[in-house]
Design goal:
2 strands, 88 residues, elongated, mainly alpha
Length: 88
């Protein structure tokens, strides 16, 4: 589900979520009930607030050795950052 949500960030309406549940062969009646009852809302809120406290303001956000990477997400740039971090 995580991958589907991430890949479809612009399509997160209730019917979209239900279709992802079907695609993943989840128990759709349980999914519908838990969605309607907001069973997981507190956990989502906790995760969101954890990200806010960590300085995350969008996805993806990369941290290298505890420091947020604010540069390009191009592969060459990320590899260079990781190589510098590994070199110490």
């Amino acid at each position: 589900m995580h991958d589907l949500l991430y890949e479809n960030q612009s399509r997160l309406g209730e019917e979209d979520l239900r279709s992802y549940a079907k695609e993943l062969e989840l128990d759709v009646s349980t999914f519908d009930r838990e969605l309607a009852d907001h069973v997981h809302a507190e956990r989502v809120r906790e995760d969101f607030m954890s990200g806010v406290r960590s300085g995350v303001n969008g996805t993806p956000t990369f941290y290298v050795n505890g420091a947020r990477h604010d540069g390009s997400y191009e592969i060459e740039t990320l590899l260079a950052v990781l190589e510098r971090a590994a070199a110490g």
